[in-house]
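During the reporting period, our protein records have gained a structure token line. One record among many is quoted in full directly below:
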Amino acid sequence: MMHAIVARQSGGPEVLELTETEIPAPGPGQLLVKVAAAGVNFIDTYKRGGIYKVGYPFIPGAEAAGTVEAIGDGVLDFAVDDRVATAEGDNCYAGYTLVDAHKALPVPDGVDDHTAAALPLQGITAHYLMNSSFRVEPGHTVLTHAGAGGVGLLLIQLLKSRGARVITTVSSDQKEALAREAGADEVLRYDGFADKVRELTHGEGVHVVYDGVGKDTFDDSLKCLRIRGSLVLFGAASGPVPPFDPQRLNSGGSLSVTRPTMAHFLQNAQERRWRATEIFDAAANGTLKVRVGATYPLAEAAQAHRDLEGRQTTGKVLLLP
């Protein structure tokens, strides 16, 4: 038997309950992974809250790291006791989880379990944002919101390594210090950020805005863009963006808006390997610093969700079975 967090209906964090259930058995092409740590992400709160539809009872969690305990038929690339991680799992808020072997990421030596659990979803997100949603080049000026969040801290480092000028927003002095430590060139508060970005760019605007906040920042994010700039809306921490008139993109300077999701940037083994290898290798050699901001026992998953949604966290939030 194992412990797992189960939601029997959609709702607030209070619907997350600690439950005892049977350890699953791996089917063909699957790994049974003993979870060392599971990542807590906004997509988990969207599914829990009913923004994304799921079936109930529902065990949240798509991200975890741990050790292979058993393998199903047809698995050739992994063996028992291998260390793996995933950003594409299911039911990861648990002591054990099943992972499709082709979605498992080998964890290199030098990367501990907490770092391995913290990297897959947010690291791969940062990678596809700056390489594929909008390709950042040396000399570009970028605005990324929530610079002290899990994606934000990784994205700032990757953008700076690319040679971009990075402007970011945060909500407190503590978060400003973290964003600056990650390498941000300019750190702003959310209030009036669009005007300040225009000042910092001499009225021209930025090449791209990476916006994981959503409703509260969307309008002003558009105002920050230069002619033919791009807004990459990759999350909705403050709520979904209401419908808007596409004519605003014309009047703002032939702007572009895209709403990516990670699954569409992991379309095959080659793409998955490229993104994961670059992110894990950077963490292993120390060029990418991964901040685990908070860890919670599995039983406190509800509190982890409250803190994440209340913007009380920095870096990565993990659950420990």
